[in-house]
Amino acid sequence: MKKQTLIAALLATVASTGMAFAECEVTLKSSDTHPDGYPTVEAVKFMGDELKAGTGGRMCVEVFHSAQLGEEKDTIEQTQFGVIDLNRVSLGPFNNIIPETQIPSLPYIFRSVEHMHNVMDGPIGEEILAAFEAHDLVGLAFYDGGSRSFYNSQKPIRSMEDLKGMKFRVMQSDLFVDMVSAVGANATPMPYGEVYSSIQTGVIDGAENNWPSYDSSGHFEVAKYYTLDQHLIVPEVLVMSKKTWDGLSAEDQAAVRKAAKDSVPVMRDLWAAREKESEAKVIAAGAEVITDIDKTPFIEAMVPVYEKYVTSDKLKDMVARIQATE
Ligand code: GTR
Q1: 154 φ, ψ to 5°?
Q2: How far is it, in rounded angstroms, from Cα 80 to Cα 272?
Q3: Both ends of the chain: CA-CA distance in Å?
Q4: Phi/psi of residue 294, each to 5°?
Q5: pTM for this structure?
């Protein structure tokens, strides 16, 4: 291709990809650690379409997937500063700054995904979303993150005894460090993007995550033993920078909230389908899944974790209300 033609072709590509957002008065920058096509990424894109429709085309969302804007902990800070407008993250990386987020992040707090939905869709969920405001963020909606279980490169884990002395990566949250210590293993908090190479080089033996992340991160390639102990059903959250939020009219704020809430059922459908796909894919690729595991000792081992983190009357009451929710 001649140089001029090549430049013209490149300009045309830039123009066409930039077009969808160029029409909008406001384009919100949204971050996600997951690759394009992952349920969370697609849900935020859907939220953007809803927002555009709800504001007569004035507001758009551009999703920067695949950690293009950085690892979760850093993108949370940038969202607090208003450099990033929207962020789809796990509740885990908020644990050290927002105590309320620790409660749905407690191991075995939810009896099932349905129980988690019942809690997070109700007043407790609203209280947790409201807790973000004091930290320069606006909580908009909760997304699904399935249940998280341990995987490793060394051996099939069938009991807590097997976990003794092994090294697992956790999200950057003290609560998860204590959760791993409670089952007799060692925790290394580290950003998601460093996990693959850390398992490969033997810095850690494994990590813990849900089916879609185990698949899309490629962790199953380096840690083939996946033990379904399902210690966490931790929801994910879509937050907006308070700086961005404060710059919007009340009408636009309402449109943002509505679009975020409307994306939840879409996300749940995408999630349910992706969990099955990922499970089938990693099993076909040779992952060894251990399902015959007695969770009772795992649940009992978490008592000291609850004692350490559920300290204030407010948090104790929240745990009691979650346990009383059907
Ligand atoms: C995924 C979650 C991400 C991120 C990641 C991790 O399941 O969707 O937001 O928290 O786990 O372990 O860092």
Answers
A1: -95, -50
A2: 31
A3: 65
A4: -85, 115
A5: 0.93
Q: How far apart are CA 96 and CA 285, in angstroms?
A: 36
What is the architecture, at CATH level 2, of domain 148-233+282-324? 3-Layer(aba) Sandwich (3.40)
Span 129-187, pLDDT tens digits: 999 999 999 999 999 999 999 999 999 999 999 999 999 999 999 999 999 999 999 99
Ligand 1 pocket mutation pick from 213, 220, 238 by most atoms within 8 angstroms of CB: 213
Closest CA relative to residue 267, chosen from 302, 238, 299, 225:
238
Q: Is the CB of 89 within 6 Å of ligand 1?
A: yes
Q: What is the pLDDT of residues 1-40, one digit of tens each?
A: 444 444 454 444 444 444 556 689 999 999 999 999 999 9
3-145+234-278, CATH topology level: D-Maltodextrin-Binding Protein; domain 2 (3.40.190)
Is 275's C-beta closer than 6 angstroms to any atom of ligand 1?
Answer: no
Q: How far does residue 23's CA lie from ligand 1's centre (Å)?
A: 33
> Kind and range of the H or E element at 227?
strand 225-232
For the chain, the structural domain boundaries read 3-145+234-278, 148-233+282-324
Listed residue (148, 149, 144, 150) closest to 113, CA to CA: 144
- Residues 121-146: b if buried by 16+ CB within 10 A, e if exposed: eeebbeebbebbeebbbbbbbbbbbb
Q: How far is CA 136 from the centre of its chain?
A: 19
From 30, 33, 188, give the residue whose CB has the most ligand 1 atoms within 8 Å, as the site to mutate.
Answer: 33
